[in-house]
Specification:
The structure is a homodimer.
Chain A lengths: L5 E5 L3 H9 L6 E6 L3 E3 L4 H5 L5 H4 E3 H4 L6 E5 L2 E5 L4 E4 L2 E4 L2 E4 L3 E3 L17 H18 L5 H8 L1 E4 L3 H21 L10 E4 L11 H13 L2 E4 L4 E4 L3 E4 L5 E2 L2 E4 L3 E3 L10 E2 L3 E3 L12 E3 L4 E2 L13 H19 L14 E6 L2 E5 L4 E3 L1 H14 L3 H17 L16
Parallel strand pairs in A: 1-2, 1-9, 2-5, 9-21, 11-12, 11-17, 12-13, 20-22
Antiparallel strand pairs in A: 3-4, 6-7, 7-8, 10-18, 14-15, 15-16, 19-20, 23-24, 24-25
């Protein structure tokens, strides 16, 4: 009897979903595992955090993606350990055997030397975290209504963002627009000219992974929106209210959003030799984990360290998706006795938005900024959302936002209590 | 100097919002207080619980309602005590003085003799509770995928609804439709013909407050959808898995949704003499609380007990809204030295929906059921939602639901842990 081989994929992010979809109707039985029952469109999390979109618009039930794909199954489970010698994984729902294992577990916030303070910082890597940021900011605004002391108000309404990558500048831009157009309407007793939004970046430019033109435009746009951009600036300490800055004055704020870095989520059970800088898994040109025969890694958690990419590929959705598609083809080739092909990343460009009619786009051959870039950004993100309903509701919210200079959703549904 | 008098309203439900809106540009300073920063459109909570709508579609930020009304302010606060002798209320944000106090605190679930078991029951009176029901049901479906035992599966997927009022039958209908059209697509390994949905009602008909025609149609429609309707049936005990039924076989289910009754939320500080049956506040024909000069109560929490209405008016949104509007007029009349008018409820009818193309409508002169009633139900509810954005997004989700026989939102964003 000919037994179908089983591909187990850990992680329902961009890479895992793409891989499972590309194995549709293949000779494999595919099992996709994620700790959530939904896929998160991470690039728009900042809009959930800033009351522009609802979680349901950027999250999509994984089961729904695979409804009509009979060889792909889904399990909501946490992976506890990988037993590579037995080709099994230990999960919260029991032991699961694999013929091929693909680790697509993505990345989480890297607090670096601030790790001991992470309970006091806000992070933006999941839907729950985005909702927590929303609740925390809205609750502090309510508190700020109760005091007449400018100092106390500032502590409650100021926002520090640490890290000038795409997540940081998008968050800063969205908050600056709320400050300008939305909050004064809802909180008439607060003087929002006193509200300071500071963006701290350790290097000498924003959007370090993009072109210098993009960096410059992002800085200019943010400053136009009254965001104070502090380059070459290191944060040193934080006590929940006072952010110490190296060589500069302290910044007073209860709200510090940490977007300064990410690290790979490596599951337990792999040898320590495969750990690359940034806590990523060392893979070869075929995304196979070094030293293992039937274990692969794709997306943020994987890094193919070589002369061309000494730090691995950038941790971006397009990389993960291309790797997912490529690995599917390779697994099917191997199954047919053919040779797998090396993965090559086709950089189709990158982009970030700073706010209304302002975005920066780097294509391989050209960089552009401004209104057209903003339309491109919106179109690409809208088309990338999973499901027609989510595309349509997002469009409704964006149109409303555009014409009313407004953000529809300022609900504190669950309070956020900061850990101390 | 002529000092403006201050009206303090506790509660941002249908009554409180209507009252504050109706006092727009009056001679009063109005302060509206609610523990949430949003108004909840309670009649559609069951659609949030059954993954048909997002919370943001049925909740609306209270501050936004009053943006352009300069004499109405809002505070998010919990009321701890009423000090009627000082005309002050104690809140989580300090003491607040009033000239007129209006209690519009609504109602919450009444567990009657099941009070000691309420930690094991699911309730549907707030957005958080609706999201908890959604998460609990979806998590149990995930668990049911892991067992091959029909008994274990049934315990996880069966649903009991206690109480045959509008909330109970709407919940039962929505769940029955999920069972029929949605769940088999998402959970192919579960045999949903084994899933039982039982609706238990102590009296001899559903929708006791509506016409016998409506009761009969609701029962017929629910039974067509495979809901087992058990009239004249008392639940006796529940241990988290086994629901004991008086004189009948136990019903096995982890999911028991309690919609069997509500009771008024009376704030602390009023005399015990004003408590009417159902924990409501006794008011006179002007909605003034008996025995107090400047304290009023409207909506679910108030009851004008007299020969015509020996149990007070029904606890419905239209009653609250009419009382809010009426009280606003009376307060303005009193302020001008005129006599207040008695409140008279104009019953414009009531309605409930059982599912796709099925609703029951009682108007004062006519009762009708079926597809047209369903369209009326949808139109009324759509128009009653606060805000254009919410109307539009709800319409999008209903259209999608109608044409695809689907429910777009099955996300488990926060796990629900049942208290034991």
């Amino acid at each position: 009897m000919y037994a179908r081989k089983r591909v187990v994929i850990i992680g329902g992010g961009f890479g895992g979903i793409q891989l499972a979809k590309s194995l549709k109707n293949s000779e494999f039985d595919v099992l996709l595992i994620d700790k959530n029952n939904f896929h998160t469109f991470q690039p728009l999390l900042y809009q959930v955090a800033t009351s522009g979109l609802e979680p349901g618009s950027i999250a999509y039930p994984i089961r729904r993606v695979f409804r009509k794909i009979s060889n792909v199954k889904f399990r909501m489970a946490e992976v506890k350990n990988i037993l590579t010698d037995q080709s099994k994984i230990e999960t919260s729902v029991g032991l699961i055997h694999y013929d091929y294992l693909v680790i697509a577990t993505g990345s989480s916030t890297n607090y670096f030397n601030f790790d001991s303070k992470k309970g006091k910082l806000l992070s933006l890597k999941s839907v729950v975290e985005a909702l927590d940021i929303r609740s925390f900011i809205m609750e502090n605004l309510e508190k700020a209504m109760l005091t007449r002391s400018i100092t106390e108000q500032q502590e409650l309404i100021n926002v520090a963002i640490v890290g000038g990558g795409p997540a940081g500048i998008e968050m800063a831009g969205a908050l600056a627009e709320m400050k300008k157009w939305v909050l004064p309407k809802d909180y008439p007793d607060i003087d929002f000219t006193q509200m300071q939004i500071h963006l701290f970046e350790a290097s000498d430019r924003l959007l370090g992974a993009m072109s210098p033109l993009a960096s410059k435009a992002a800085k200019k746009h943010l400053e136009k929106l009254d965001v104070v951009v502090e380059l070459n600036t290191m944060v040193e300490d934080y006590d929940g209210a006072r952010l110490k800055i190296k060589g500069k004055e302290d910044f007073i704020s209860e709200t510090v959003i940490w977007t300064a870095g990410v690290k790979g989520n490596i599951p337990h059970g792999l040898s320590e030799e495969i750990v690359a800088p940034g806590n990523r898994i060392k893979v070869d040109d075929f995304n196979k984990v070094l030293g293992y025969d039937n274990v692969y890694a794709i997306g943020d958690v994987s890094a193919n360290i070589n002369d061309e990419t000494p730090r691995g590929l950038p941790m971006l959705a397009p990389v993960s998706m291309q790797q997912g598609l490529h690995l599917a083809k390779n697994l099917m080739a191997i199954q047919k006795g053919k040779n797998p092909k090396k993965f090559e990343y086709k950089d189709k460009g990158s982009m970030a938005t700073i706010g209304r009619k302002k975005a920066v786009v780097d294509l391989p051959s050209i960089s552009f900024q401004g209104t057209f870039a903003w339309f491109v950004w919106m179109l690409i993100h809208l088309l990338s959302l999973v499901g027609f309903r989510n595309k349509l509701v997002t469009l409704v919210d964006w149109i409303q936002n555009y014409f009313n200079y407004d953000r529809p959703l300022g609900l504190i549904i669950r309070r956020y209590k900061r850990k101390d």
